[in-house]
Design goal:
Cytochrome Bc1 Complex, Chain D, domain 2; 6 strands; single chain; 13 helices; mainly alpha; two-stranded antiparallel ribbon; 2 domains; binds heme C
């Protein structure tokens, strides 16, 4: 993926600075020997090309790497090596203690808008092996500053989709397309869709404006992370997260009821923006 993106960036006249890793922690580079190494390599392929390698479980055109950059190693985009040592843990959203495997299942349900592969299935075992290997040497149970996406200060003005549309046109459309539907080359998305039927669904973490703002501020435009003002990051996040996207799998059959149960704040589900009732698409 980075090679394809790099070639595109050179074509449009920019270069990619090195993607960030945690000072002091280096995920390994050489695969372990034998069958475990094969499983790790398989997991890495699934992580970087999820539709191609685990298409049965993913209806979106995204890969894990679309949001966890540099194969899940980049310290600015919720790195996998900072997550793994923290599981099992209690998660408020699930209202129970979940394992790493169950956390990955949720990514399939929401971010990949798909179906969760069974615990113990090849896909899940490969991903768990890959994530575990990336985390070798990290201290179990020790929270690092790189966990999750970097924090973003509160916006001075309420996040606004109309202001965000201007940021999108100027700084994002070049890669993600004017319609936000991404760009495909040789059958693979080099630039992933930001909304619409092939993007993440309403239950995904990225559908919350704050999460998207944090990811965008730190990482977008790709290769130029940190370049937007905080306000622009909030506004453009509000813009992309107020476009239609696939239904929340927890849909009760009624948009208002689903909104009341799962979307009381932090996102645009159930609201009318530009004349469209969000959450009404299948
Ligand atoms: C659309 C963007 C997106 C995609 C695609 C995506 N994730 Fe995530 N992921 C997130 C966000 C956002 C969070 C933080 C979620 C939250 O706070 O609810 C997250 C959290 C996680 C976590 C927990 C991190 C922690 O520190 O506890 C793991 C593990 C994870 N993702 C793995 C994956 C895997 C594996 C895939 C591919 C099957 C994937 N993700 C695909 C956006 C994404
Ligand atoms: C130079 C090209 C480029 C530009 C400009 C760019 N992006 Fe991206 N964006 C990417 C690539 C490439 C990825 C996926 C990274 C990967 O797979 O390694 C991505 C991923 C994303 C994602 C997570 C995946 C998804 O589809 O939801 C979001 C959200 C996003 N970009 C938003 C933005 C926003 C907002 C802007 C403008 C401020 C922007 N991008 C500008 C190339 C770009």
């Amino acid at each position: 993926m980075r090679a394809a993106v790099g070639a595109f960036l050179v074509a449009v006249g920019c270069t990619i600075p090195c993607l960030a890793e945690e000072p002091g922690f280096r995920p390994p580079t050489a695969y372990p020997p034998g069958p475990l190494g094969e499983m790790v390599a398989k997991g890495e392929q699934i992580f970087t090309d999820t539709p191609g390698e685990a298409g049965l479980y993913a209806r979106s055109a995204l890969s894990c790497e679309s949001c966890h950059l540099d194969r899940g190693r980049d310290s600015q985009s919720s790195p996998m090596w900072a997550a793994v040592p923290m599981y099992p843990q209690y998660l408020g959203r699930n209202r129970r203690v979940i394992t790493l495997g169950q956390r990955i299942q949720d990514c399939f349900r929401y971010s990949m808008n798909g179906a969760a592969p069974d615990l113990g299935s090849n896909v899940l075992t490969a991903l768990e092996s890959y994530l575990f290997w990336l985390s070798r040497g990290a201290a179990i149970g020790a929270k690092t500053p790189s966990r999750g996406y970097p924090l973003l200060s509160d916006p001075e003005l309420d996040p606004n989709p109309d202001r965000g549309r201007k940021v999108f046109v100027e700084k994002c459309a070049l890669c993600h397309g004017h319609d936000g539907q991404g760009v495909k080359r040789a059958g693979r998305y080099v630039f992933p869709p930001l909304w619409g039927p092939l993007s993440y669904n309403w239950g995904a973490g990225m559908a919350k404006v704050e999460n998207a703002g944090r990811f965008i501020k730190a990482n977008m435009p790709f290769g130029l992370g940190g370049g937007l003002t905080d306000q622009d990051a909030w506004d453009v996040a509000a813009f992309i997260d107020s476009r239609p996207r696939p239904q929340d799998p927890r849909f009760t059959g009624d948009v208002a009821e689903t909104m009341g149960k799962y979307h009381r704040d932090g996102d645009y589900y159930g609201r009318v923006v530009d004349g469209v009732l969000l959450g009404a698409s299948p």
